[in-house]
Amino acid sequence: MTKKKEYLIDVYQNLSDWLDEMKEIQKPRVNELIKQAALYAKTAEGMTEEKLNQFVDNLKFDLHDFLSTKSNRNKTFNVSPLIE
After folding, report:
1. Dihedrals phi, psi of 77, to nearest 5 degrees
2. Which tens digits make up the pLDDT trace of 38-51?
3. Pick from 79, 69, 33, 40: nearest CA to 56
4. pTM of the prediction?
């Protein structure tokens, strides 16, 4: 193998390892977001339809912002299907 190819394989492996590590680190944050959303949903039972729609819109915005921030590190990740 050439040195350039070995270097590229090493870079790829390091990047792959880092992405796997970040995935594990981010799981608790996503789980916490889901728990909060569930609590909000229980609260929403007593809300008017207008307030509930506003809440859903705000949650979509926050989730999109969260996922966009994470995807800036990996430009190939598309967040749109996750929030629609």
Report:
1. -80, 125
2. 887 777 677 788 88
3. 40
4. 0.36
Give the CA distances from residue 82 to residues 30, 45, 67, in Å, rounded to whole numbers and listed in that order: 13, 24, 9
3-state secondary structure the chain: CCHHHHHHHHHHHHHHHHHHHHHHHHHHHHHHHHHHHHHHHHHHCCCCHHHHHHHHHHHHHHHHHHHHHHHCCCCCCCCHHHHC
Residue 77 CB partners (closer than 8 Å, separation 6+):
67, 70, 71
Residue that the structure tokens 């990740």 belong to: 77
